[in-house]
Design brief:
Elements (H helix, E strand, L loop, with lengths): L2 E5 L2 E3 L5 E8 L6 E8 L6 E7 L4 E4 L7 E6 L4 E6 L8 E9 L14 E2 L3 E5 L2
């Protein structure tokens, strides 16, 4: 059973930065995808970014390109999401997730992921 522990959320003013972390434990296939999603109150969950082990590529939502950066510490099974130039529209609960054997076209689809972290709250407000 894979378990994910995400953390790093908080309260920040517009233009500020936060760094989220997600630590994975348990058996993982060689073709996993590890992603970040977020959900604001009253809105649907949306894709933020993901790393596909098969191909070693990173994907971003258009809304965060150039502001967010995903990185990894493979030795610690940890993935980070550096979030810069935050706006109130970035507020929400952020979740990390892992999908085993995801096809490329499902990379941005939350329902295709198998395991989820508990979520960490990000609030951007003045």
């Amino acid at each position: 059973q894979v378990q994910l522990a995400d953390s790093g959320g908080g309260y920040v003013q517009p233009g500020g930065s936060l760094r989220l972390s997600c630590v994975a434990s348990g058996p993982m296939s060689n073709s996993y995808t590890m992603g970040w999603f977020r959900q604001a109150p009253g809105k649907e969950r949306e894709f933020v970014a993901a790393f596909r082990r098969n191909g070693n590529r990173i994907y971003y939502a258009d809304s965060v390109k150039g502001r967010f950066a995903l990185s990894r510490d493979n030795a610690k099974n940890t993935q980070f999401l550096q979030m810069n130039s935050l706006t109130p529209e970035d507020s929400g609960v952020y979740y990390c997730a892992i999908g085993m054997g995801l096809i490329l076209s499902n990379t941005r689809i939350g329902a295709a992921y198998d395991y989820w972290g508990q979520g960490t709250q990000v609030t951007v407000s003045s």
